């Protein structure tokens, strides 16, 4: 089989490369000639563990190709995937479908045999039907079907998610299209990966509903963390007790500074807009969006409080810029809210991140960028762990104590255990757990008094 993939961003590049690993002939096409030249040279535009090696393997095997020529990508293709960006509108948060419809119009020019057009981009309900209308208007005699096939790729684990997914969702009413999609995903089908065959509308909703539900879980446990802080509970114990219930599950019950990234913020906003347009308000998701924004803003206040009510003239070390580990993606990252707020309050910020600093330098100013955590912490009045990179999980606390000006750690990811911090003399603040002042739990101190 042969497929074309329009767009060599995160979804297009990962999906195309993984399909090539399945033994399919894949041609990835992009208008950006410079990007295509770099890909041909083995230069990967995104950070994703394992992707560079897999791209090189498939190129060497002759199954993965890069071009700016859409006609070449479509020649003899059984399916063409639309994997272009759908950024949120700056006006109302709706997904901008400009690139999707542009791709559809261009694809229509080269349809000369039966082809399945696959929407891989995250798009609002009804987009598959609209793409069909766009193509039909541009090429009335074309023989094709449009399928919705949403992606469920986690940044930092995308290859494994594609190769071993929880499910594959295919939205179409065409038996011919179903047959093509089953053949494309045959390696997964043989492994009994569940395949949800449904309508395009249901498929499009599944994508948004899935991401919104995960955002709800994150926001819910963050609010429970606030309650734990008020009454003396431990949110990690609460989350474990909840997660052992099979109806709830343990994933996404980790309290922190709020969700970020390329999917959850964009998709929750889009779902809110879709609900409003169709007179079916998504009130829970609307609240989640507002609560998450407030959550991120409140994190800077925690740092200021930990520093005695002011950070003016103080050095704050920020460990982690990316919205999560194993990615260089900083879109909607909590750090992009926390750092400017601390700077506005008069703090001097030193920051480090294993892979995201180049991206961060484009949007953050007046930051001292450091090669590692210890350099950032030197003479710091407070250390703030924002992203739970492995490099930050095993810090030498004796060395930290020697480097910092004040032994104050604000751990926004709860990566250290409270007993480990006991007796080290740190003012240690985490999320939804008892606070340690000079190595003693404030909750125990309160009870004892």
Helix content: 40-55%
Poorly predicted regions are 444-449
Span from first to last CA?
73 Å
CATH topology of the largest domain: Rossmann fold
Any idea of the CATH class of the largest domain?
Alpha Beta
| Strand composition percent | 5-15%
Question: Would you identify the CATH H-level superfamily of the largest domain?
Answer: NAD(P)-binding Rossmann-like Domain
- The Rg value, from CA coordinates, equals 24 Å
Write up this protein:
The chain has 449 residues and is an alpha/beta fold. The chain folds into three domains: 197 residues, Rossmann fold, CATH 3.40.50.720; 83 residues, Orthogonal Bundle (N-(1-d-carboxylethyl)-l-norvaline Dehydrogenase, domain 2); 154 residues, NAD(P)-binding Rossmann-like Domain (Rossmann fold), CATH 3.40.50. Helix content is 44%, strand content 14%. The protein contains 19 helices and 16 strands. The strands form four sheets. The chain has a six-stranded parallel sheet, sandwiched between helices. The protein has a six-stranded parallel sheet with strand order 11-10-9-12-13-14. α5 links the parallel β4 and β5. α5 packs parallel to α6 and α13 packs across α14. It is elongated, with a radius of gyration of 24 Å. The N and C termini lie far apart (73 Å). The C terminus is likely disordered.
